Each structure stands twice: as structure tokens, then as C-alpha cells.
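Model: You mentioned two targets. I'll fold them one after the other.
Researcher: Yes, keep them separate.
Model: Target one:
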Amino acid sequence: MTRLAAIWIVIGAVTGANAVPRPRLSVVEPWRCFLGARPVALHLEAAQDRLTKVRVAWRVSVERAVLATGERIVLAGPGQKAVVPLHFQCPGPGLKAVVSGRMTATLTRLSDRQPLAEVRVPLRFYPENPFAGRRKRIASLDLLLFDPLGDTAGEFQALGIPFSRGGDPRTAKRRTDRETFVTGAGLSFRDYPGLLEWLVRQATTGANVLCLAPADGSLPVPDPQIVKPERMQLQGASCITALDSKLDATAWPPNGAMVYCSISFSTDGANTPRFAIARNDRGWPWLSLRFPSDGCFVFCGFDLIGTWRDGPVPRYLLARILEWMATKPQTKDVSGRE
């Protein structure tokens, strides 16, 4: 290293250590999708390069209509970020379609009104019920729900989702070749030994199976000599974007958490590879198996039912999953790859 290069490194280190933050304005919450006719609470965070009073002004608009405006004077500086709460009402009631909106916020110095920073955030407002007008389509899926805890059934009933509720599906006679078996959120497969394997077998014969965020369980990795899925996918939140690119896929209200449980590789006592389900987000929250029979098995570890009432994404994601499972794949899988 030359002496000149060493001097520049030292200068850069000193400059970095003494650098002050540039004026910045950001939205604390990362989600951008909201249910119509609901109150919204967001927060703006203002940072300044020197301690001074600043004005934070914001506006929420939908198309050409202004939903809300506001401003607040705060003190911000290095090491002293100012958080400004803002509240507004989503469009509705009676919202019939998804509506796009925007929030614009500006940061100006109070002393001379000099603009310091600006942020523009796209927003989307959703009708309460993604299944409205699709009852006939959903009914054709022939949903059979096994939900010992009852939470999933309660939310389905509240939105008028057509389904039949029963006990352990192994004890019921198959009504059609294209039933959609759904297991309710929080189900412990340890309490029903062999059920998870049975559900996969139903998918191999043409049924669709959706496991909503189970509490625990394990599943043998499909043996290609016995049953060979045409496609097998283990994914993270990228599956949400693939199903609907406009849904929030990084965080959900109320606290940002999205994953209830995840699936990962494990082995049993005989060293047989298995998929193990655990209450954490360290594995994959999505596993899908597509079979030559057109049957489909989906493990969904996202907390759809637990966050059902906090925003639109869980219920709209469920609608997309059901549609995707019932659609015979052409050339693309859920990741969008050919």
C-alpha cells in the first residue's frame, strides 16, 4: 500500500466517524395495503443533520380526491429522530374494487422553509371481502375444512366462504375426485398421526390440499420411486409476490410478523429424510407439490388466520392460493419461472 493511499484511508475513516446524517423522512411501517373503511395509523420518522425545528407535512390522496392532510412542527437532529403519528380513514364503506392511493410527506426547515426531504409512498385500499362475487367459483372448489380449534371456520363463515366442516377427513367418504381439503390454522398433526401423509396421498390422486399454518408435524420427503411430484417448491415470501405482486410481502400489521410456522429438512431415528414443521421462521413458510394427476398439496406457514382482521393481505392471499391450486399449471410455476 502506498503512503498516499494510506493517508486517504485515514481521512476517509475520520470523515466517516464525524459524518452527520443527512435530512431524511421515512415511513416507519413497511406495509402499504389496507382494508377499506378502516382507520389507518402510520408514523413518519424525521431525521436532521443538525438540531433544529422542522415542519413535517403530509397528504393522503386517492385518484383526484384528498383523504387527509396534516402537519406538525417537531425538533429533530443528530441522535434525536422525531416520530410524527398520522391518522386517516380508508375509502369506503361500499368499496367494490381495489383502489390505488398515495401518501406524500415533506420535511422543511421552520426558520426559512427550505425543503429538506420528501417521501412518496404508494398505498392500496381493498374491499372487505375478496370472495364477494366469487361464491359460485369458490363453491366449485368443494372446500372440506378440518378445524378442531375453530378459528379458521369462524373467519370463513364471517366472509361467507362456502365450505363444509367435518371431523378427521380420513373417516369421511370422498364426495368428489376434486375435493379441496383444508386443515385449519393451529392444528397439531402430532395429535393425528398419519394424517399429513394421508393428505399428500389424496393430492397424488387428484385432490387439492391446503394446510394452513399447523402447530407441528412432520412429513416424509416424497420418494420418487413411490410417488414423484411433477413440481416441488420450497419458498419464502417470494411466493406471495408470485401469486399477487401487489400484496405486501415483507411485513404485515399489526407488528410486522408474517410467519406462524415453517418447514425444514430433518431426519428421523432411521435417518430417513423428512420435512419438519416448527413454530419459527427459520425454515420455509411455503411448500407446494404438484402431481401428474393435477392434484396439489400446499403447506402455508404464513399466519393468515392470526392476522386475518388486521389487513387485507391474509384474506386476499388465501383467495389467490385457492385459485392457484385449482388452476391447472401451464408453463409457469408459483415462482413465475418457465
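Model: Target two:
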Amino acid sequence: MLTNEEKNINENNQEVDEKTSKSLSQSEEVEEAKENKETIDDKLAKTISNENDKQKDEVEEEEPPLPIDSDYLIEFENYRKKFLKFYKIQRYLQWAVAAVALIIIIFASIGSALWDFDLSVIISMYVISLVIFIAYSVIMRVVLNKKMKKYFIEYYNLTYKYITEGYTYDDFLVDAHKKIETIDFLESDVYQNIVNVGSRALVSFKYDDLPIFMCDAAGSVKYEKRLIPVFVGKYFRAPASYDLETKTIIYLKGDARSIPPTKVDDLNVSYEDDRMIIYSSDKNYQKFFNSKCKKTFLELKPNKDLIDAFVCLKNGKLYAGLGYDDSLMVLPLQNAIEVRPLKQFKHDIDVMLRLIRLLNK
């Protein structure tokens, strides 16, 4: 469960919220998935019902947090503590200002009864109390929003320095507040009936001279009058040598939290085992996604942090997603930054980029 502070920060920096959903006019029902497969509604229902039982079903015992062994993460941790201190102080000040304004109003009300205050004095006291409260709220909102934006910048800049440490990624640029267009996610063509796309922290860089774009993204569908995310994680876009007429989707299976691709009605199940499934209607897909690609892709191993993964190849482009739990996707505030999910992502991005390189040969 997120704390109020964490919700406030994320609501100011994400598109996936109630205000965004109200502005969308699409409300079509989710169509049936491939024959003999669960419908997306069934899968969503199971995901929701399993949400509270997730902790009970875990076999592994809770591991102690890993020590913070990076100067970049230590720097962010110091910044987090400073920001949290400011955040708490301004909350206390807000209550104090509200209390002062209320005392003035009460004093004016009592004065009118006991000391026969003039009406103009009473109105002036009411106005003063209101001005004090509104002025403080407006000023503090501006200051807090500015500090929130800086907090996001510090988080992404420092954590990506940690993620890329020891690797060679050219022209690595991070913009914590830059988003992708909705069409950029819909082009992945993996999930159907997406009605809302939220994103943040657009990253661009080159890997072996290949232009790579990556960001935090969430794609949601409408389910029983509310939005349910079918994908939350790191979203990639890159070139690929794939030139077949139909798309090919490779999916790494996860646990009850995961939702497999749903836009596969026009594809065949070309390969499936207990770990992955490949949807394609072209027998020549193996020319591009060969055994070496398969072996590299399977280096991704779902766990408590990595939920699942997909790669979609079409029209000379590659779209990929690494689905992650809140441990990576929710910025830390009340608690110290977790090293484990960052280490997981550091491993996974290396695997994904090596796969992208293979798919461009």
C-alpha cells in the first residue's frame, strides 16, 4: 500500500490517474482472446483476485535489503532524506497555518457575540484568515511542485548512472519529465483495447550505433468502469532487421501478476514451452529470432521484481517491454531506496540490448 506522500508525488508526475481516464472517450469492451486461451477479462479478474493473496503464495522468505554500495545511490539516498524532511515540515506548517486561520475565525465569531465587534471588523478578520490560508497554500504548492520535479530528476539521473555503470552506452540522455505519445505505445501492437497510456523518464542512447529509446510506461484497459494496467514497466523501441509481412510476438511468461499479449487473434502459436510463447503467422520468423536469440531472451528470469517481458517485431522495428513490480516502478520516499530491483533492471537491460543487437544482424 502506497503512503499518502508517495501517492502525491506520483499523481503529479504520471498520466495514469483518474483525471486522465475521465478525458478518454473510448469505452469498448475487451474482445475475446485467441481460441482456447483465457479472455483478457478473465485474466484481469484473476489478477485482481490474486492481488491480496500474492504475499501468501510466495515460497521464498523475505530477503533483507541489499546494502547501498554505490556512490550514486548514496547521493540519491541523502537527497531523499533531505526532501522527505522538507515534505514533512511543510505538512506540519500547513496544519499550523490552517489552525491559525481557524483561530482567527473563531475569535471573530466569539467577538461578535461577547464584545459586540463591528461587522466590518468581523468581515476583515474572516478575509484575513482566508487570505493567510490561500496564500500559504498557493506558495507552498508552487514550491513543492518545483521540488517534486527536482526529486524526479535526481532519482532518474542518479539511478541511471548506477544502471549504466560498467557498460558503454553512447549519447545517453535522460529526461525525467519527458513522455512518449500514446501512438508510440500503441504501435507495439501487443495489447488490444488500450484506452490510456502513461509514461515518464524518456531515455535515448546508442548501443552499437543502434538508436534506442526507453521510458517508464503503463498501458491500461477499461474493466468494470475503472482502468486496469495490462503492462507497467520499461518500454523499448529500436530498429530491427525483421522484414516479414506479419508481426511476431515473443512473450516471457510470468506468475499471476502477468497479463500475456492479447492482440494475437491473427497470429498462430508457433512455439510454446513452460517459459515462453511465440506468436507468428510466418514460418520464416526463425530466420530473425533464432536459437541464439531465444537463448539470450531466456536469460530474463521473472521473479518478485521482473514480472514478465515481451518483444514485438514488425516493419523493421522492435518494440519490447520489461514488466516490473512496484519495487522498481514506484519512486521511494518514506523508505530507503531498494538496491535489489535496480540490480535486477541493470541485468535485464543488458540482456535486452544484447538481444536487440542480435535482431539487427
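Researcher: Noted. Anything on target two?
Model: The CA atoms of residues 127 and 327 lie 46 Å apart.
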